Each structure stands twice: as structure tokens, then as C-alpha cells.
Please model this.
Amino acid sequence: MKKSLLCVLCFFCLIGASFAQFSIDKIDAGGNLGTNMNSRTGWAFGFGIHGDYEIIDNLKAGLQLGFSFSDDMFVFEPSVYGKYYLPFLSFFGFTPFAQLDLGASVLNITEEKTYGRFLFGIGAGLRYEFGKLYVEPKITWGYPFMLAINAAVGYTF
Model:
């Protein structure tokens, strides 16, 4: 019994040491705030959280949970995204990026039923970094929201 416990303990120590070899500064997490055209009557207020990981240089994959509401509806939008930074186009500390979103959109219309929709978006924005903090204003075109304008603020771990 003691021998197997020692083997398990040794295994976890080696796993911990192997993870210490990798840099974790490729992980971003933050929140976003903005407006979109999810509402039947015009613009809706939106907010959300996001997190991503840099797969290779300048390419990130992430998960985003978005919420938006207006006087006539509430929308929940979980999605995954890929974001590609274009550092060769950087200017005054801003780095442009392109983003592709895929996910679902759950619309709950006041006093009516809930609808599910496929979510697709393509966006462009700029990233500005303050040490480990960053700001990313972005504009996105897609379905079912047509147009969204938001800004993300986050931290790089």
C-alpha cells in the first residue's frame, strides 16, 4: 500500500514539474461591454466575459459568454472564437486583429416564447496593452445581431 501511494505521489510531483516548464502568459481573461442590434426595436445593451489562449504566435482561440437585453427581449450568446493579430500593421501601440465567432443565440422575447439561433460573426478591432492589462475596441457583423460595437478589458496571465 505504501509503495503504490509513493508511486502516485511521485507521479503528481513529476506532472507538476513538467507543467512548470511552460509559460502561462498566453492566457487572457476579461469582460466586455457594448451595444448590438439584437433587438427588434433597435439597439440592445450587451455585456459578457471571455477567455482565450494563444495557440501559436498571433493566433488565439477562446470562449465567450455574452448577454444583451432591451425593453422587449433578453439574449444569451455562448460562443467560441478565433482571433488573429496583425502585428505588421501596428501603429502607435495599437495592434489590429480579425475575429471569427461561432456559437448559439438564445432569444427570450418578453411575454412570448424562447428561440434558439445559430450565431456567426466576423469582426475587426484594435488591441492596446498597458503591461499585462489590455483594451480591445471591436466592431462585429453577423447573425442574428447584424452589427455589434463593444470594448473588452482584460488581463494577461
Q: What stands out?
A: Residues 7-24 have pLDDT under 50 and may be disordered. The helical segments are 2-19. The chain has one domain: 24-156.
